[in-house]
Amino acid sequence: MDIVYYTVRPGNTLFGIAQFFQTTVNDILRYNNIADANRIYVGETLAIPAGTSQSPRTHIVRPGESLWYISKMYNMTVEDIMDKNNLGNPNVLYPGQILNV
Fold this sequence. Notes:
elongated; two-stranded antiparallel sheet; two-stranded antiparallel ribbon; Membrane-bound Lytic Murein Transglycosylase D, Chain A; alpha+beta
């Protein structure tokens, strides 16, 4: 199982993070030795057991995200994401754009 490291942002919940990475809250709790699912903190880095789903994954680009940042979230290279999405310019992304990862 691949492990991705994610830094908690304002407004994040374990449920939302689990959905985003297509894993479960229980897996995140277990991998990070967290006893209380309501106690995560902005700036905290979590180990996320990603890729537990067999279905293709997509990522919706958020304001301020770059291909480099997204590639690190999914343990991929920028080139991998560009190839999967037929992107010509790695610097041109739009909030709301859906990427195959």
